[in-house]
Amino acid sequence: MKYIGHILAHLRKDLRIEWRSRDSINGMLFFSLLVVVVFSLAFDPTAAVSRQISGGILWVALLFATVTALNQAWTREQNHQVLEAQRMAPAPASALFLGKAIANMLFVLVVEAILAPVFIIFYNLHVLGNAWLLALILPLGTWALVVNGTFFAVLGLRTRNRELLLPLLLLPISLPALLGMVEATTGVLTAQLDPLEINTWITQLAGYDLVFTIVCVLLFETVLNAE
Amino acid sequence: MSRPAILRTVAWLWFLASIVVLVIGFREAIFLVPTDAAQGDAGRIFYYHVPSSMLSLIFPYINFLASLAYLYWRRRDPLKALTSDALALTAAEVTVVYASICLITGSIWGRATWGIWWTWDPRLTSMLLLWLLYVSYLMLRRFSSAGQSQTLAAVLSVFAAVDVPIVYMSIRWWRTQHPAPVFGGGPDSGLDPSMMPAFVWNIAGWAMWGIFIMCFRFALERRRQLAEQEAALSAIEASLETAQ
Fold it and tell me: Which family is annotated (chain A) (predicted)?
């Protein structure tokens, strides 16, 4: 119970800071819109083929937006030595990590909620499969990106070329999750994948989330206190 | 005097022995094995492709175990931790070398036999991802500052070790174009007896070569660590002298 209290305290703090500035969400939103527009120019979005590629484009846009936001995620903590204070605090380090990851997750979900209608209009989409499955795929996929992204952002915190390092580490690790999200989303949008296969991809995504959340929570303290 | 001299002799003998085994393997693979009926001379690349791919799946385990050892000894015994970190680094570098050889020989073979350099087949994709993961591991080591790079790299190695089986499982359902596993596959698997000597000589030679490179690189990394410690020590002594 006390542990959950620590997580909530970190989460409340992050949400309040974000609410005052709205830097991350605005930046992510504009960036992902730009990516969608760029892809619309690069491909012909009115053709029937757009439904085939739209799952991939949606996730690539979200992935890029997440990376840009996560690069900034820990700079707030670094200003005024807040991170040093948190390292010395008696609360468990993994609570800090979980609070930060959940906050980032909420930011990305807000972006998704705004992006999805725009996406449907731009690419002239009709969901042919079970639309409610998207309510399962989107959060699972987002968590897969955010949990590893938050972890690798703190891993790159005290390195040179921090902005470059995060995608270099995050992309190879996330590729299996990315494959699952894109396949499942495209499967739902086109209804060409049979439900059993979509279920396999979703189960796999959930398994990926579970494994990497555990690894992140176990190793976070080591990384935070790496001298 | 005695221990380094013995080590140096052993290293030289090992190096010469692996060269000899590789030469025998080359002669077997290129001149003695009968030409493959289906693939022609392109099939001979098998003796280089398969050993390097098998070895590139073994060295990541050394990297993973050494990283775990580093994380365990990090606070308890810093000197042992430094040794295991050097081992992890060398294993990762050798992994990248062998995985690169595997990918390059594979695409040369693919060009000759399939007519294409690359296809997104599960086994090809998983090998490419293994290569990407260990390249990013080496990148992290280059980008992070001296004091932290060992811990950060060890943590990343754990992630890579978790990711590799997931990659392998997740892309197994894709269409497959790569030949079925030669060993332990279906009832037709296994090598024709005429191919066996060339394969055995080559895998032994490449394994010996890989071990030699790893030990050589390990010794080099240890020297670098010792030099760094000595420099730090003399810097501390110098600062003490100026203070007085």
Answer: Belongs to the CcmB/CycW/HelB family.
Closest CB from A148, A172, A222 relative to B71: A222
- Decide if the complex's ipTM is over 0.85: no
- Shortest distance between the Cα of B142 and any Cα of chain A, in A, equals 9
Cβ neighbours of B163 in A, within 8 Å: 172-173, 176
What residue spans of A74-133 are helical by DSSP H?
A: 75-78, 82-88, 93-122
A11 in Cβ contact with A103 (< 8 Å): yes
Please tell me the distance from the alpha carbon of residue A115 to that of residue B204, in angstroms, as a whole number.
56
Chain mean pLDDT for chain A: 86
Report, as ranges of residue numbers, the positions in chain B whose pLDDT lies below 50.
1, 184-187
Structure pTM?
0.85
**pLDDT band of A151, cuts 50, 70, 90:** very high
pLDDT digits (tens, 9 = 90+) for A129-144: 777 888 889 999 999 9
How near does any CA of chain A get to the CA of B37, in Å?
Answer: 38
Q: Is A168 on the interface with B (CB under 8 A)?
A: yes
Q: What is the pLDDT of residues A79-123, one digit of tens each?
A: 778 888 888 888 888 899 999 999 999 999 999 888 888 888 887
Best A165, A218, A221 member to test B by mutation, with max B CBs in 10 Å, is: A165
| The residue type at A10 | H
* Segment A4-13 mean pLDDT: 90
Q: Determine the Cα–Cα distance for residues A169 and A65; give it in Å rounded to an integer.
A: 16
Which residues of A fall within a CB distance of 8 Å from B169?
204
Cα-Cα-Cα-Cα torsion B149, B104, B195, B91, nearest 10 degrees, comes to 0
Closest-CA residue to A67 (of A147, A138, A149) = A149
Rounded Cα–Cα distance for residues A31 and B203 (Å): 50
